[in-house]
Specification:
The protein is an alpha+beta fold. The chain has helices spanning 20-38, 43-62, 69-87, 93-109, 114-131, 138-159, 165-189, 219-224, 343-348, 358-370, 374-386, 403-411, 416-429, 477-481, 484-488, 509-530, 534-543, 551-580, 582-595, 607-617, 622-637, 643-655, and strands at 214-215, 229-234, 246-252, 254-255, 260-261, 267-268, 278-286, 296-297, 307-310, 315-317, 325-333, 391-392, 413-414, 434-441, 444-445, 452-455, 459-467, 471-475.
């Protein structure tokens, strides 16, 4: 005959029915952890998960039976089929985490005991971690800290069901405060790996700047409607003037009559630095944009690590920028560039499609007949834009196939891409090599920390023309037509009532002040926390006296520091308990009284086992010994203490006479 399985202890987690308070804490933690994922999940799956949470709450309040496992399995398979139809996979990053969110609802729906709460809590912890696969900013971190606190309070309540919520909150706070130094040490000393967090690349559609390797009418004006961050530049002192804040990006060479294309780029050795000008040294922190462009103040005189120069002055990273990147830069503003250029590139900078924009070509041909001098032709074009009555607007009218002709002679209204495209076509048609440079113009100095913040609304396009003996010369036709664009920025240059980004509108100055403060904090977060990479970790190890540390030395240092911290924390805790806890002091006096009778407590012995052994040795005092042990266990590990209970324990210890 098989022996019967032992019955579960009535206080064991698998035997205790979950309380409403613990279930509420679990649901709160899951909601906090799953909320960011809900923004990425299909709407129907988010609604289904919330419905599962609501179903469990209804069961709790109505005191009904939980659904059968067959129903839960049916919901699970149906949801998995829906995820497969949505993503055509189940084990990718987004579909896999989406299923975890759903499974949290299914687990809650079958939660009956405190053991189920513990399992769901571990699932919640995993959901907390996976949030950082997508975003690592301050709001996400604060939300996850709140979720960790909620799940810790829930676990404390599960393991000590007789205490009040206030005591559980205090205990959870103490536990997390004790864990904070350990987390800081792990953050500083655990060997870091190169690349994005967890070694996983971001999705290609996340964090795109808006600039591309093509430019057609309306492209840049659409980008300028976005207030998203592009990059920050820390000059550590005097900032470049507004007229010097041209941030170079993709260069457009090829024109099909309407759209400009960057075309192939050729690598070159770093060019000689420009002569004269003002040298600026600064630190760039660029947001991920999934491209290889590294933006720099014109003209760059230093090549960042893992990057290369191109023949047209771009700086390209070896790999696409899938994570936030920090690099040191040196630029020379208003310097004299190298005047040499390849004949093949000059020929490329003169190419125009045949029979396109004939009115523009006729105007340029007329100028060329009157004078073939490139400097004179350049002056004629600038004067034409300066006195042509052009309007600068974020809402340009649509243009047809002959976009340049329509802009110059019909609408005379556009954004920077209209001005630069028309100017470059005029120059090429007149025999002057020209190309278009896209990037950003300007930047908003933060009064809190002096960091120059450049946003997508600063996107801009300008022209470079080649002049013999001078090289490529920057010409901004937008500034010629609208001089205020250089000095006062976008918001003061467009007509009143234009569709500006929200925080660029003049009535929201107070919101911009708040954003400056937030940007200053976010920049330090990006540098100190998210920017803590392998190089900075090695700098820390060198400061600690371990230069050129490899991963073995770092692990050894980590273990040693954690061991010292654990010993200090244990010693402090024991000293504090012995000095300040009246219950523990009474128990120690009880143990001392029994030790004087030859009954010493073994180090491995718990209070219940020790009391039973002492009661058998001293049967005359057995009842008192058992009562003291039970009262100590209750006060130490169970319900809230009251002054009466503590005084009762003290009194019983004083009255104990172990004959």
């Amino acid at each position: 005959m098989n022996a019967a399985a032992p019955a579960a202890h009535p206080l064991a987690p698998e035997a205790r029915v979950v309380r409403g308070r613990d279930l509420a804490g679990l649901l709160l933690a899951l909601l906090l952890a799953a909320a960011p994922h809900a923004l990425r999940a299909p709407w129907w799956l988010t609604v289904l998960t919330l419905a599962l949470y609501g179903w469990r709450i209804a069961v709790l309040f109505n005191r009904r039976e939980l659904p059968r496992h067959a129903y839960i399995l049916l919901i699970a398979f149906a949801a998995m089929a829906g995820v497969w139809m949505e993503y055509r996979m189940l084990f990718g990053r987004i579909p896999g985490i989406t299923l975890l969110v759903l499974f949290s609802g299914l687990k809650v729906l079958e939660t009956r005991t405190h053991r189920d709460v513990v399992v769901a809590a571990f699932l919640c912890c995993f959901l907390i971690i996976t949030n950082f696969l997508f975003v690592q900013d301050i709001p996400a971190a604060l939300l996850m800290v709140a979720a960790i606190f909620a799940i810790t309070v829930t676990l404390v309540g599960c393991n000590a069901p007789g205490r009040s919520m206030r005591t559980d909150l205090r205990t959870a706070g103490v536990l997390l405060a004790q864990a904070a130094p350990v987390a800081l040490i792990l953050f500083l000393l655990f060997p870091r790996v190169q690349g994005p967090m967890w070694g996983l690349p971001q999705d290609s559609r996340i964090g795109v700047t808006g600039l591309s390797d093509t430019m057609s009418p309306g492209n840049v004006s659409e980008v300028a409607l976005s207030d998203a961050l592009a990059f920050r530049a820390d000059f550590g002192g005097e900032l470049p003037t507004p007229r010097q804040r041209y941030w170079r990006g993709p260069v457009m060479w090829d024109f099909d009559g309407r759209t400009w294309h960057a075309g192939p780029t050729l690598r070159r050795q770093p060019p000689p630095p420009p002569q004269g000008g003002r040298t600026y040294r600064y630190v760039m922190v660029i947001e991920p944009h999934q491209r290889q462009w590294i933006f720099a103040l014109e003209t760059a005189a230093q090549l960042p690590a893992d990057s290369r120069f191109t023949l047209d002055g771009q700086i390209l990273s070896v790999q696409p920028l899938r994570a936030r990147v920090r690099y040191d830069m040196v630029s020379i503003a208003d310097g004299q560039p190298d005047a040499r250029e390849y004949a093949s590139l000059l020929d490329r900078a003169l190419q125009l499609p045949p029979d396109s924009n004939p009115r523009t070509a006729a105007l340029a041909a007329q100028w060329h007949r009157e004078s073939s001098d490139p400097v004179t032709l350049l002056g004629r074009a600038i004067d034409y834009f300066r006195s042509g009555g052009f309007d600068y607007t974020l809402e340009p009218p649509p243009l047809g196939q002959e976009a340049v002709d329509e802009f110059l002679f019909n609408t005379r209204s556009g954004f920077c891409e209209h001005f630069s495209s028309a100017f470059a076509v005029l120059m090429r048609a007149a025999g002057v090599p020209a190309r278009i440079v896209t990037g950003y113009l300007g930047g908003d100095p933060n009064p809190m920390d002096g960091i120059l913040t450049v946003r997508q609304s600063d996107a801009h396009a300008w022209v470079e023309v080649y002049l013999a003996g001078r090289g490529w010369v920057r010409v901004d036709p937008t500034a010629a037509a609208v001089p205020g664009r250089l000095d006062f920025g976008l918001a003061r240059s467009v007509p009143q009532g234009s569709a500006l980004p929200f925080l660029m509108r003049p009535q929201f100055d107070w919101l911009r002040s708040l954003r400056h403060g937030w940007d200053a904090v976010a920049h330090q977060w990006n540098l100190r926390v998210l920017g803590y990479n392998t190089a900075r970790q090695r700098e820390l190890m060198s400061w600690l006296g371990v230069p050129q540390a490899d991963w073995q030395e770092m692990i050894a240092t980590l273990v040693a520091v954690l061991g010292v911290l654990a010993f200090l924390l244990f010693a402090w805790t024991m000293q504090r308990v012995e000095r300040t806890d009246p219950v523990q002091r009474a128990w120690l006096r009880f143990c001392e009284a029994l030790a004087r009778r030859g009954i010493e407590r073994e180090p491995h012995e718990g209070p219940r086992d020790f009391a039973e052994r002492a009661a058998r040795r001293l049967p005359g005092a057995g009842t008192s010994i058992r009562r003291i042990s039970a009262l100590y266990i209750d006060l130490r590990y169970g319900r809230d203490r009251s002054r009466t209970d503590v005084e009762e324990l003290r009194q019983r210890v004083r009255e104990l006479k172990p004959a």
